[in-house]
Design brief:
This protein is an alpha/beta fold. The radius of gyration is 21 Å and the shape is globular.
């Protein structure tokens, strides 16, 4: 039986996590380990300077889950170390309350949990959704319609687990904030470019101490075909394969040709002059 780990960064009580867990249950055994409260935008943070606490909690459907005061990456590590018994076969993180598109993936705790799964050798997927009811609060689960993205993500799990699917790749899934009948399809995409509108705002002054806000304005994006932004803007579910190899091979060749200070160049490589 397939053993699936479900986690997130919005917290164990998130409606998105529950919807995803329920959609995955027909595929096998589902274990849930998630932060006890919201850990959004924590990226690949881990907890190293204190012990971690874990509580068994009951989800809204009556099933049991583990809640920890750690991070999404900590949750995946817990699974590796045996908290849920047999080590899971696949990691699915989400459904995140809000998109994780373009450059946002580098900040996302949702995507970080999936990356941790990949680094540990598991198939992994991060799942996010836009708001179906933008008049509601962003953190209100009722602002989202998870039906299409949860069902779609469950259909991706068998693809992830195929032997020929590359183990160093995770899938980053983003669904538009639409009812299932309004979703126009799915598209394999590349990451787009986010345009942030951060501003430095002085909130208060108390002696030598100042209080600022630097985030908060809604970001935009570059309108480019083939990107994850373009897909969700067209009403489609975006699926972007991501990997963790950040090495720039071309940059390596430039450095080798230039020669590093105090390091002899490789044989046959001429040191740059000037």
């Amino acid at each position: 039986m397939t053993h699936i780990l479900v986690t997130n960064d919005d917290g164990v009580g998130s409606a998105g996590l529950l919807a995803l867990k329920q959609a995955l249950e027909p595929l096998g055994r589902v274990s849930v380990i998630a932060p006890e409260s919201n850990r959004s935008a924590i990226g690949r943070g881990i907890t190293v300077q204190r012990p971690l606490h874990v509580d068994e909690v009951r989800l809204a459907d009556g099933s049991m889950a583990f809640a920890t005061d750690g991070t999404p990456v900590d949750c995946v590590r817990f699974a590796l170390l045996g908290l849920v018994g047999e080590v899971p076969d696949v990691v699915v993180s989400g459904v995140n309350l809000g998109f994780n598109l373009g450059d946002d993936v580098t900040y996302s705790g949702t995507v970080a949990a999936a990356f941790e799964g990949v680094l540990l050798g598991w198939p992994a997927m991060a799942v996010s959704a836009g708001m179906a009811h933008p008049e509601r609060d962003q953190w209100d689960g009722a602002a989202y319609d998870f039906r299409a993205v949860a069902r779609f993500s469950a259909g991706l799990v068998p693809i992830l687990m195929r032997e020929r699917f590359p183990r160093h790749v995770l899938l980053n899934v983003n669904a538009p904030g639409l009812a299932p009948e309004a979703v126009t399809g799915a598209r394999v995409t590349r990451l787009g470019r986010r345009v942030y509108d951060d501003q430095l705002r002085l909130q208060s002054v108390d002696g030598d101490r100042r209080r600022y806000s630097i985030y908060g304005n809604l970001p935009s994006f570059r309108s480019e075909p083939g990107t994850d932004f373009a897909a969700v803007d067209d009403g489609e579910i975006s699926v972007t394969p991501l990997h963790f190899d950040l090495t720039d091979v071309d940059g390596m060749e430039v450095l080798r040709g230039a020669g590093l200070p105090g390091v002899a160049p490789e044989p046959g490589v001429r040191r740059a002059e000037g």
